[in-house]
Amino acid sequence: MLFPAIWAEAANVARRLEYKGGEFIMRHLIAVGLLLLLALSACVQHSVTTITSTPDRSSENEAEAVYTEVRNKMVEEQIRSRGITDTGVLLAMAKVPRHRFVPAEYLSEAYGDYPLPIGYGQTISQPYIVALMTQYLEIRPGEKVLEIGTGSGYQAAILAELTDRVYTIEIVEPLGQQAAATLKGLGYNVNCKIGDGYYGWEGKAPFDAIIVTCAPDHVPQPLLKQLKDGGRLVIPVGVPGYYQTLWLIERKGEQSRSTNLGGVAFVPMLGEH
Ligand code: SAH
User: Fold this and answer.
1) So what's the pLDDT on residue 184?
2) Considering the entire predicted model, what is its pTM?
3) Cβ atoms of 181 and 237 closer than 8 Å
4) Is any ligand 1 atom within 6 A of the Cβ of residue 125?
């Protein structure tokens, strides 16, 4: 859109200069010259804009205020309106800066009603799914929670708003390291580990709640064993690459009760099991 407009303007200017004889070539030479000048001034203008918009305190605060507004809208329109009622979960979703967990190229979509790529073929889950799974975990302050599939660290931050004992395992090392750095940078005290979450975190078991954010094709027995009596496991189970069923599994002594929470789509659990 811009270049045809510049070209037309340059050609007009050249036409107004009223050259006689050989005008055609002259006009075009002048037009090209003007075009180059305009392009150059656009570049200078751009670099000036970039420099003056380097974040100072107030513009940073302004940006955060905008994110806060969009986040509150997300909570109302995507989460509360779909039936999430747990106050702790709603407050956590309103507080955690989701935009700090998405790659820079997706910043403008950080609060969209869908998952986003985070690299290595993985995704940060849709906000509503994060809220729904967290609500089913029924975490009370001080309870010990394990997450399988740290990814961006966003879900771990939500958990950390509800209890100060959060453990999370990621199998893709660079993702796990980056999530640990993001969480630390935001002041969250989350215990991060690189490894295969299928086997849980034996040394820290038992857990009051376990959330699995990647989908195995069966319920990992080590996770069931690491649940406390009365503990809750929320896990998508199904064929890799298709839709899965989200399950709430509550442990009661040596028995467990499973509730089907509906269809979901998660990335597959990696590893040989
Ligand atoms: N909870 C994440 C989203 C996770 S996407 C967030 O809030 O951003 C699922 C993650 O599970 C991916 O990062 C993937 O690498 C990880 N994953 C897959 N298989 C795993 C396994 N066996 N153990 C631990 N993490 C696994």
Assistant:
1) 98
2) 0.81
3) no
4) yes
